[in-house]
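Researcher: Here's a chain I'd like modeled. Treat it as a single chain, no partners, no ligands.
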Amino acid sequence: MDASQYFGFLAFLFVFTAGFWLLIFLLTFVVPYWIGGTVMENFQLRKEAKAKK
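Model: Modeled as a single isolated chain. Structure tokens:
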């Protein structure tokens, strides 16, 4: 394996692992935070609408 194949393989590993860890981060932190914020905002809006009636 010459140098260009070696660097290509390293670039592939970097892109693959960066994508993997980004996916893990999104699924464990960003998506639950987004869903939780949406649920809390809907509860507050319903509470405010109920108070106005």
